[in-house]
Design a protein that fits this description.
Layout lengths: L1 H6 L1 H5 L5 E5 L5 E5 L1 E2 L2 E2 L9 H6 L6 H5 L2 E6 L2 E6 L6 H4 L10 H5 L14 E5 L2 E4 H17 L6 H15 L9 H21 L7 H15 L9 H16 L9 H16 L11 H15 L2 H9 L1 H8 L3
Antiparallel strand pairs: 1-2, 3-4, 5-6, 7-8
Helix pairs in contact: 7-8, 7-11, 8-12, 9-10, 9-14, 9-15, 10-13, 11-13, 12-13, 12-15
Length: 321
């Protein structure tokens, strides 16, 4: 931070108070970059980093240099994925440099924190039913192969439900039939409760970017349910999002793999509700505009807890009609 102050970072950010020392998720104090209008103060209109553009990658703080990568280690070795909450992901997942060509450069980046290791004794597929770690790694590879074999042109909800069915059958179970409309309404209402509670608890200490983020998500949740078609570009984007989530072990943040699929389907339905003519396909940019704030909002202990409580509804969303 000292180097950035010496360079005059406040001129790039447009605000004097561009970095703040605050308690982090682990309870320890750390430096956090300020947010403006729901995003980092250094984010340029073209989604590039102003610090990177002005002074190069070496000038950025550690976490910023690592973003949008996410690194972890599993029994098969090191894993590198792109964080789907990156606002530029929808524009670069196909046209950008292949991730496989970036692994060596990403491995040399400074770590903002210790690389997490994925090594649970068991992984849940359904609540209370799962497989051991070795069996999960084999199942994960099979699920990834099936997902990549499925054409992105398919509707993402039904393609994802096929993964849920496959995983449940692998443990001798089946996904219960779902009342999709009622289940989606239940999850939506639970999330409305969280946003309303977050707004009610705001105080003078609440950051403006937090207020903006909550209101953006609340606006999305309050939109009338819709089923706009998805453009091919948007379906390919969502295909990449779920692939990264599976490879990145997002299963651990949910009450099993099938619940993770239910959450993805709920997110797709939020995207289908994007404002616009009912018959006009949702673009990848519109999909990202709806999904990214939601993902940033959902990375919160209160939201994660509520989503776990909504597991029965998520399971219904992942099940056949």
């Amino acid at each position: 931070m000292t180097d950035l102050r010496a360079r005059g970072a406040e001129e790039l950010a447009g605000i004097a108070d561009w970095a703040r020392l605050e308690p982090g998720p682990n309870g320890e104090d750390g430096w956090f970059l300020a947010h403006v209008d729901g995003h980092c103060a250094f984010l340029l209109p073209d989604s590039r980093c102003a610090i990177h553009a002005a002074w190069g990658a070496e000038a950025k703080p550690g976490f910023c240099r690592e973003f949008p990568y996410r690194r972890l280690r599993d029994p098969n070795g090191d894993v590198l994925v792109i964080r789907p909450e990156c606002a530029g992901f929808h524009a670069t997942f196909e046209a950008g440099e292949p991730l496989a060509d970036q692994t060596e450069a990403a491995a040399r980046l400074p770590l903002a924190r210790q690389t997490p290791t994925f090594a649970p004794k068991a992984v849940a597929v359904l609540p209370g039913a799962g497989v051991g770690l070795d069996d999960w790694m084999r199942l994960e590879q099979a699920l990834l192969a099936r997902w990549h074999a499925q054409a992105p042109e398919l509707e993402p909800e039904e393609a994802a439900r096929e993964l849920a069915r496959m995983a449940a059958e692998a443990i001798g179970r089946s996904v219960p039939k779902g009342r999709h409309g009622l289940a989606a309404d239940a999850v939506r209402e639970a999330m409305r409760m969280v946003t309303n509670a977050a707004i009610a608890q705001e105080s003078a200490a609440t950051e403006d970017w937090q207020k903006t983020l909550v209101r953006r998500v609340k606006h999305t949740l309050d939109l009338p349910p819709s089923s706009r078609p998805l453009s091919l570009e948007a379906r390919r984007y969502l295909h990449a999002v779920l692939g990264q989530a599976l490879l990145g072990k997002n299963v651990v943040a949910n009450d099993g793999f099938v619940a993770m699929i239910g959450r993805f389907i709920f997110e797709v339905q939020l995207i289908r509700g994007s404002p616009g003519p009912a018959a006009e396909p949702v673009t990848a940019a519109e999909a990202s505009e709806a999904l990214v704030p939601w993902l940033r909002f959902a990375d919160n202990p209160m939201v994660i807890s509520m989503l776990r409580r909504a597991t029965p509804a998520l399971l219904e969303l992942a099940g056949p009609r």
